[in-house]
Amino acid sequence: MPKILETRLEIDLAALDSNYTLLKSYLSPSTHFMGVIKAFGYGTDAVLIGKRLIQLGTQQLAVAYIEEGVKLRQAGIEVPILVFYPQLEQLDSLIEHQLTPSVYTHHFLEGLCQELKASERQQIPIHLKINTGMNRLGFEYNQLDSVLAKLKSEPKIQVTGVFSHLAASGNRRESGFTEAQISRFKQVIELFKTQIALPFKSHICNSSGILNFPEAEFDMVRAGIALYGYGNHPAEHEQLKIVASLKTVIAQLRTIQKGDSVGYERKFIAQKTSTIATLPLGYADGISRIFGNGKAHVLVNGSKAPIIGNVCMDTLMVDVTGIECKEGGEVEVFGKNHSALDFDSEHQSIPYELITRVSQRVTRVLV
Question: What is the pLDDT of residue 230?
């Protein structure tokens, strides 16, 4: 690797390959794989990750919003793309770019039907979302008769998927709840098989579902966080390889004396002569102010150095007293050698939040 000259996010596709292979090993060869690349590919690069996943054999991709799907289409990605949270105001764009909406309310279903009446598209694929216990989005079981009646009256709509979402598949103490969700979903699938003539893909497993409940793979699984190297408990973490590493350099070193303060509001007061390193990244780069004042650590020359004082917009300071380092030296904020869990030493956040917050102004580099 060339010397680090700026704050940057290194993306390791070999690690992505390894995580994909691991997840596939839990599944039957015939089970389809959907790669979730919303939020800029969990803070990495959605186009880069999406194209790699397709090379590996992924049949479908998923994003949160229509705009994300449009960017993938503009980059030349042609596989089916599921949009989890489509908005009625952008349906013309969704139809134009042949994206697949998740449909989870009668309000959206009616709006889609109206849009299709004015469209030249002969058919549009949809995935129906069913609430089995997450209680976030989705049709209730007692609404399905009316949903099916509406679908039968709209020949332009083709149900190509039926899915739900597991609420606690990474929490072994909640295995009973997860199994109940899976059981409810099986009931839904049996109902739809008797009412929908064309074959459709059923899917409920997320990353932790794949690793802990592979018997619930159905026709397809959706992998998100695990592809990027993180799980929802230590046993999952140990199997995975971290894809993205946020790195920076030491912009300046200074020695301060006992009683000297560091940063805004003088939140850090030195208790002894100390060596302080200033790093060129801050909350505008995704490092929240909650991680100041000793609440997080970065890795400097193999040693943990706590963030001190308040995190600034473009900089933060760490205590490197006793650590051999120099200006221009490399610092790993979080990544392969110092995971997001290691960085967040007081567990104030979760890896999902940390990695997706890396600002788009941070340079992405493929390694």
Answer: 96
Find the helix packing angle between 144-152 and 175-195, rounded to 10°: 30
Interhelix angle for 46-56 vs 66-74, to 10°? 70
Sequence-ordered list of residues with C-beta below 8 angstroms from that of 349, at least 6 positions apart, any chain: 288, 290
Residue of 20, 24, 38, 230 marked active site? 38
Gap between the Cα atoms of 8 and 14, Å rounded: 18
What does the pLDDT read at residue 11?
A: 98
The number of beta carbons lying within 10 Å of the beta carbon of residue 114 is 12
- Crossing angle of helices 46-56 and 13-25, in 10° steps, is 50
Query: Which residues neighbour 130 within 8 Å (Cβ) at sequence distance 6 or greater?
Result: 138, 139, 141, 144, 162, 163, 164, 185, 188
* Kind plus residue range of the DSSP H or E element containing 244: strand 244-249
Give the model confidence (pLDDT) of 306-323 as tens digits: 999 999 999 999 999 999
For the domain bounded by 244-366, which CATH number is listed?
Answer: 2.40.37.10
List the domain boundaries for the chain: 31-228, 244-366
The answer to whether 277 and 250 are in contact (CB under 8 A) is: yes
Which amino acid belongs to residue 119? S
Query: d(Cα 39, Cα 365) in Å, to the nearest integer?
Result: 18
Structural contact between residues 260 and 280, judged by C-beta atoms closer than 8 angstroms: no
CA distance 168 to 182: 12
Q: What is the dihedral of CA 264, 280, 228, 48, to 10 degrees?
A: 140
Q: Is 129 a catalytic residue?
A: no
Which of 152, 193, 258, 264 is flagged as catalytic? 264
Residue whose entry in the numeric block shows the structure tokens 């994300």: 68
Q: What is the arithmetic mean of pLDDT over 343-347?
A: 93
**Matching CATH number, 31-228, of 3.20.20.80, 3.20.20.10, 3.30.420.10, 3.40.50.1100:** 3.20.20.10
pLDDT band for position 2 (cuts 50, 70, 90): low
Check if 38 is active-site: yes
Report the distance separating Cα 65 and Cα 352, nearest Å.
Answer: 18
Which two three-digit tokens encode residue 156?
A: 């332009």
Helix and strand numbers (H, E) in the chain are 12, 19
pLDDT value of position 233: 83
**Residue 285 has which token pair?**
């780069």
